[in-house]
Amino acid sequence: MERWRYHSGPRTLAPLLRERWDVLWRGSGFGRTLLLRRATAAVLVGVAAVLALTPGTGSAVAVVVATRDLAPGTVLQANEVTMRGLPAPVVPDGAARTPTTVLGRTLAAPVRRGEPFTDVRLTGPELARTVPVGPDAVSVPLRLADPDVAALLRPGATVDVVTVGERQDEPVVLARSARVLAVLEAGPRTGTRDGRLVLVALDPVAATRVAAASLSQTLTVTLH
């Protein structure tokens, strides 16, 4: 019986791998288990490599985030913002992509350290359009005659803006159904002097009337 077979030429890698596979597969149960584990690991490594090379998968998007906890009413300075890369699927809509879009603007809501700045966290037309006042709604800051009233207000509340008429017993309603956008903290950084500013959304006509009255008259609000 011929026990050995001699090869006249060099052996290729494929037959060697097949022979190695046959030896392990026909061997003990432990050998088969080890072989299956190695094969599974190789498949997982291959899948991970494919996912890593797939365009858009795991790619980072640079957004502007807060360097510390910030209160509403804060006027953003350079030392309070930084850039950070976030996975594209978790970047919120309206996230700021460059510091120049947020510097000098006022926060309408609190922001946590590391949280991205979005358009609705900042005072401006984008914030006014988030409430159901109308597509042309604009925001107006109010300094109320009684600062304690501001403590009762929350974003989303509906109020009427009231002032004193020619007679003390005849109040005048300047605007109805204004929506509170933000209640800004008092302090030197916010520009407030005598208490907290309240930012409300109104249609353009009512907003102009309220803004003009605030220059010479005391204002307050009634809650719905």
Provide a brief overview of the structure:
With 224 residues, the chain is an alpha+beta fold. The chain is 25% helix and 23% strand. It folds into three domains: 14-45, no CATH class; 60-119, Antifreeze-like/N-acetylneuraminic acid synthase C-terminal domain (Type Iii Antifreeze Protein Isoform Hplc 12, Alpha-Beta Complex), CATH 3.90.1210.10; 125-223, no CATH class.
Walk me through what this model shows:
Residues 189-193 have low confidence and may be disordered. The chain folds into three domains: 14-45, no CATH class; 60-119, Antifreeze-like/N-acetylneuraminic acid synthase C-terminal domain (Type Iii Antifreeze Protein Isoform Hplc 12, Alpha-Beta Complex); 125-223, no CATH class. The longest helix has 25 residues, at 29-53. Strand 4 and strand 5 form a beta hairpin. The relative contact order is 0.13. Helices cover 25% and strands 23% of the residues. The protein is built from five helices and seven strands; from the N terminus they run ααββαβαβββαβ. The chain has helices spanning 13-25, 29-53, 125-128, 147-150, 204-213; strands spanning 60-66, 81-87, 138-143, 158-164, 171-183, 197-202, 219-223. It has 224 residues and is an alpha+beta fold.
Widest β-sheet, arrangement of strands: 3-6-5-4-7
Number of strands: 7
**Residue runs with pLDDT of under 50 for 5 or more positions:** 189-193
Oligomer: single chain
Helical/strand content category: alpha+beta
Strand content range: 15-25%
Tally the helices: what do you get? 5
- State the helicity in percent bands: 25-40%
pLDDT averaged over residues: 77
State Rg. 33 Å
Largest sheet: 5 strands, antiparallel
Distance N to C terminus: 104 Å
Q: What is the domain tally?
A: 3
Shape: elongated
Question: Could you state the order of secondary-structure elements as H and E?
Answer: HHEEHEHEEEHE
